[in-house]
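To whoever is on call:

I kicked off a structure prediction for a single chain this morning and the downstream step that reads the tokens threw a length-mismatch warning. I double-checked the sequence; it's 264 residues and nothing unusual in it as far as I can see. Pasting both halves so you can look.
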Amino acid sequence: MGGICVLLLGFGSVATQAQTGISISPPRVYFVIGPGQSQTEKVVVSNPSQDYPLELAVSFEDWAYTTYGDNQMFQSGTLATSCAAWISVPEAYFSLAPGESKEIDVQMTVPAAYRNDTVPVHTAILYVTQLNPRDGVDQQGANIRIAVRTGIKLYQRLPGSFHPNLEITNFRYENVEIPRVILDFENDGDVWADGQISLELLNQATGTKTVLPDVLFYSMPGDQRQQYLELPEKLEAGKYVATAIVNYGEANTIKIAELEFSHD
């Protein structure tokens, strides 16, 4: 069958209506090693299809977060934080029968001569790409060929103590088409910092409290983040106090910011 080949990208697990997909777990793998040391972690790659075998290839790329927390991909070795060249797997190509899973040893070895005190952590992404596209049909009925690529993130830091730290740098209200508050923060620690942001709005006239759903975030050292928090569509006009609570790290460190604003 002819037609365009469509490559579907994702993290951890990707599936299509044609029941072609790839699943990899866990979605994140952490290495704690220094120069001259090696560490091996296991990941499991699965073929969820009941009738289609997969021909697969393993590759590595660099990644970083944008200011807004989105993923950016780069060619392997592009970023100063790259550890892609330190990673190896026993097989770069393998096959999975329908319903089959395979355990892969992912080994990272930091070069003995490596020295860089300005880069506290390193990252890469491990991709598994389908090499045998499956025939399918798009929403307009045109013939296409569908292939899937999915990945997991790899992290490395040095052994010993580490100090995650986030600092809130700004908190402001923006009256745009969908009103929102914007929380700016930066990761000035020496390790990744993941957590959640909780936002509560207090109507100063009525005392009514509105609690928004928590927002998850992930950050790396040196990241400067702008987190947009949209306000409820039917939020009553008035003067408000917004309280943002940032909870992050293994120690559940808390940072709080408050903002007074008028909502029209």
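Update from on-call: the warning came from a stale cache, not from the record. Cleared it. Sanity check on the structure: Residues 4-157 form a domain with the Immunoglobulin-like fold (CATH 2.60.40.10).
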